[in-house]
Amino acid sequence: MKNLAINFLLLGFVGNLFFAESVIAQISREGTPPSEIYSNLENINNLPIIIMEEFDIDKLIEEDKLPENRIKKPLRFAKAFDVDIDVKEEGLLEILPNNNKLWRLRIKSPGAYSLNLTFGEYVLPVGAELFISNKSKTHTVGAFTEENNKQSKILAIQPVESDEIIIEYYEPPEVTKAGKLVITRVGHDYKGILNKLNYEDEYYGLSAPCNVDINCPAGDDWQTEKWSVCRIYVHNDGMCSGSLIVTISTPSSNKWVA
After folding, report:
1. Which tens digits make up the pLDDT trace of 37-95?
2. DSSP 17-77
3. Contact 194, 187 (CB under 8 A)
4. Do 118 and 233 touch, CB atoms closer than 8 A?
5. Closest Cα to residue 91, out of 220, 181, 194?
6. pLDDT tens across 186-232, in order?
7. What span, in angstroms and rounded, lies between the C-alpha atoms of 170 and 126?
8. How far from chain centre, in Å, is Cα 132?
């Protein structure tokens, strides 16, 4: 049987695996972006747009080939930009029926296969929703809600396929405290993490002759454990593999059990 490397794409985990920083997860619930519900909104082409600066992609690709950048380091797939984008200040505000509010903003990084975001300030009131989609509406993530609020106020958003994305933030009128959305990092995918890389990268999707396919008979006793293998995105520009471990604190012993 042909050897195959296992990869379970777990989107939305961001952290530095090598310096024991906290790992931040995102969970979204189903929903429909307001722009697909309400008519008479401003044309998408007229929305405010923020364009990332150009950079030397060929230089990054050559750097990625160096031995010191290929061993014991996350695979770099994107250029990460440090930004300070307040969605409510930079975006276009439109008043919907019943005084609901909608902010929309475009972010573009020319030539990117996909874009990913980190919100350094993410605080949503109950009833508010955040969506991110590409311009053609073929790839949308969200809704992100108050359930994604964290003490750190940080939320990382998985890559969205396109070099231009639309941020939609919906807020009902009855909120007692307005939401806060500030983007602090934008990742420009220059390798094609969602599609192209799966076929063209030298390593991803391959295994060594000594590796055994988890779906071969030799892997029969590991069919539960195989689902813990995941792809982890690191700081908007890198990825590596990892395993998920669930720990439970028992009230009686106050010990953590894996």
Report:
1. 998 999 999 999 999 999 999 999 898 888 776 666 777 888 999 999 999 999 999 99
2. TTTTPPPB---------GGGT-SSPPPGGGS-EEEPPP--HHHHHHHHTSGGGTSSSPEE-
3. no
4. no
5. 181
6. 999 999 888 755 544 455 555 666 667 778 888 888 888 888 777 77
7. 11
8. 10
